[in-house]
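User: quick one, fold this
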Amino acid sequence: AISPPVHLAGALTHSDYRAADPPRGAAGTVRVSFRVRSDGSVDRCTVLRSSGVAVFDQATCRLIEQRFRFQPAMDAAGRAIDWEIRTDYIWAPR
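Assistant:
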């Protein structure tokens, strides 16, 4: 059986919201797709659906690629394989 990747490290935090310097009170959900490589690193992040706030869209992929690390997906023979993940990230003030 094929096993999907397991998230080991990396997160987007409220300090990232402040660092993105969005318009006051801005919020939005960005849908992204990224590849978890066979070494557990992340690349090929693309925005599938914009949050409507450019700084959120840009920051989401940049931070995911910089910070996220995974135990890679495994094929039926136990070999590490590339895997695509699609997910939503919600940006909102607190």
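User: anything notable?
Assistant: The longest strand covers residues 28-36.
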